[in-house]
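Hi U.,

Before I forget, here's the chain from the pilot set. I'm dumping it here mostly so it's searchable later in email.
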Amino acid sequence: MDAAEQRDRMVICLAALASPVRLDIFRLLVEQEPVGLESGEIAEYLGQTHNGISFHLKSLQHAGLVTIQPGGAPPTLSRGHARSLRPSVA
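Structure:
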């Protein structure tokens, strides 16, 4: 990946974290790494609806910051960009 591609990828990641709720979700997942949290637990902890958390998790997944496993496994941080952002936002 060249410098321009890295910059563009980082802009996508930072844009996803511009939402206070998504930033809170990301911070929770950093704290719970490597196990993750179920979306219902995230919703309860943040006082949000399950549907709202699902929407935000999809945005974080699209940005490559979280991995959502099929079959109901808890969302976890993705490797790469998410790990490189941890010191900045955790």
